[in-house]
Amino acid sequence: MDHIHEMIQQWIAEETKHLSELEHLVVSEVPEVDLRTLLSEMVSFRAAWRTEAEATKELREQTKAALHLAQQSFEDAQIRAQRAEQKLAALEQANERKQAQPWVEALERLERSIEQARKIAQPRGWWKHRIDPNAQAMLEGLLLTQTQWLQQLQALHIEPIRALYQPFDAERMECVGITEQYQYANGLVTEEITRGYTHRQGLWRTSKVIVNRLP
């Protein structure tokens, strides 16, 4: 029994010594903490964080301003391009009208000649069944020329306004006289004094017409 007791006492002594050495080793490996150093490092870290946050904010604002400027420049460029296109279209239309003006004037003279040729080509007297072949040939030639000149105007996007025997249209026609003829409906155009024209589906020149008015 005494021997066993001595062995237990020896084991307890050895374990106690081992624990003491282990505790000493752990304490010796843990560095001592300097409170002032720790506070200084925290202040430095906070200052660096603030500096980086301010730099990030400034960079974000600069980027936002640059994007806004780029967007504004793009929109300005679009507006300038649209204005340039509008000016170019206006110049093209003005040039087309300038080119069309002599054709229109010549066409009006031609149509007066056609009316005269129709009167000459009409049969007269008891021989109404006979038609002057020379007058008929001249009329056909004038009508062919009229078709060709109208095609020239169409190439310039000029179209004549249909007014004769059409209801009066105040937007595209100008009434220069009134007639009272019961064979025509009220408000119908019975005579076209000057032909009107449209240009690119917009009004270029109004038709001057005589309008039927019934009581």
Folded structure, characterized:
The chain is of the alpha+beta class and 215 residues long. Helix 2 (35-121) packs antiparallel against helix 3. The chain has helices spanning 2-29, 35-121, 133-155, and strands at residues 158-160, 173-179, 189-194, 197-199, 202-205, 207-212. It has a three-stranded antiparallel β-sheet. It has a domain at 159-215: Roll (Nucleotide Exchange Factor Grpe, Chain A, domain 2), CATH 2.30.22.
Note poorly predicted spans.
26-30
User: What is the CATH superfamily classification of the domain at 159-215?
Assistant: Head domain of nucleotide exchange factor GrpE
Rg over C-alpha atoms, rounded to the nearest angstrom: 52 Å
Number of helices, counting only DSSP H or I runs of 4 residues or more: 3
Strand order of the largest sheet: 1-4-5
Number of strands: 6
H and E string: HHHEEEEEE
How much of the polypeptide forms β-strand, as a percent range? 5-15%
Q: Give the CATH class of the domain at 159-215.
A: Mainly Beta
Tertiary shape? rod-shaped
CATH topology of the domain at 159-215: Nucleotide Exchange Factor Grpe, Chain A, domain 2
Query: Separation of termini?
Result: 154 Å
- Characterize the largest beta sheet: strand count, sense, and whether it forms a barrel: 3 strands, antiparallel
User: Helical proportion?
Assistant: 55-70%
The CATH architecture term of the domain at 159-215 is Roll
What structural class should be given to the helix and strand makeup?
Answer: alpha+beta
Q: Report mean pLDDT, rounded to a whole number.
A: 82
